[in-house]
Design goal:
Layout: H1 3-14, H2 16-25, H3 41-60, H4 66-86, H5 91-115, H6 122-166, E1 170-171, E2 176-182, H7 187-204, E3 208-215, H8 221-236, E4 240-244, H9 248-257, E5 265-267, H10 270-276, H11 279-283
Parallel strand pairs: 2-3, 3-4, 4-5
Antiparallel strand pairs: 1-2
Length: 284
């Protein structure tokens, strides 16, 4: 490592706290943002800690050991990404804050150059410009990757929960259950139902499933076929299916498709089922 690079590195490390102070002082008031100048003390302390890690990581790019920079870059990106996702901070706000951090950091590089005019050459300044700006760019890219991965993981978990809540099998006796379907059923949701319902019925010990479609307004051609497939799969598993609440337009769609529901017990409503079965029969 060149002597002048080592001196710049030491100067930046010695001024980590002051660089962070300058960055924090440059904040503006932004309602609801973690980067707002009037953010509470706990948030400011978090920003101070994370910006210190930012500055330390960028300084490590001046070292000859590239592994140190790579390790700190990953640590910084993960910590900041998890924090910003948790606070629902838009990615553009983080990028703008990183831009401001770059400006504050480069300001101290300029101070070092002025303090060491006799020793610093134009080539040194050009080299530091390339190295330091590249380091900030890499931080930005790594943060974006981590932010995206965390958000996709969160969305995937939320989607799984939505799918779970969107097709609940509700036990009403030890062997009977109701599948109340509500809202529009598109191809993706129908596929999810086909994958989940047979498994849920087997796990719950359901031998007779009442599929209630009274809350479904629209079913297209593909979905009608998939509902029929669900009933066929349940039949192969020894689970009887009864359909309730079929709307006229849904029945027409089934007829037009040539889907034969004639062998499947159906009722206009759940109330009609209660009227047919005696309490003893219903409990069987």
């Amino acid at each position: 490592m060149r002597s002048i690079d080592s001196q710049l590195y030491k100067y930046l490390i010695d001024h980590l706290t002051v660089i962070t102070d300058e960055w924090l002082a440059a904040r503006e008031k932004k309602s609801g943002s973690v980067y707002s100048a009037d953010a509470d003390q706990s948030i400011e302390q978090l920003l101070r800690k994370q910006n210190r890690l930012t500055n330390l990581t960028v300084a490590s790019s001046l070292l000859e050991e590239q592994d140190t920079f790579e390790k700190q870059k990953k640590q910084w990106a993960l910590e900041v990404a998890e924090s910003r996702v948790a606070s629902n901070t838009p990615i553009h706000e983080v990028q703008d804050a990183l831009r401001a951090a770059r400006e504050a950091y480069w300001h101290f590089v300029e101070k070092f150059v002025k303090l060491n005019k006799s020793k610093v050459t134009h080539e040194d300044i050009l080299k530091w410009g390339v190295v330091i700006h590249k380091a900030f760019d890499e931080l930005n890219i790594k943060f974006s990757e981590m932010y995206f991965d965390i958000m996709m993981s969160r969305l995937s978990a939320q989607q799984s929960l939505i799918e779970e809540l969107g097709s609940p099998v509700i036990p009403i006796t030890s062997s009977k259950g109701i599948l109340p379907l509500v809202g529009d059923i598109d191809t993706m949701r129908a596929k999810s139902i086909l994958e989940q319902i047979p498994k849920k019925c087997v796990e719950a010990g359901i031998s007779h499933l009442f599929i209630d479609l009274s809350g479904v307004s629209i079913i297209d051609t593909m979905v009608a076929q998939q509902i029929f497939q669900i009933i066929q799969v349940l039949n192969l598993l020894g689970i009887k299916s009864t359909m309730t609440g079929i709307r006229p337009e849904i029945a027409q769609t089934a007829v037009q498709l040539g889907i034969d529901f004639s062998e499947i017990e159906s009722f206009s409503s759940l109330q009609q089922i209660l009227g047919k079965y005696s309490p003893e029969e219903f409990a069987e």
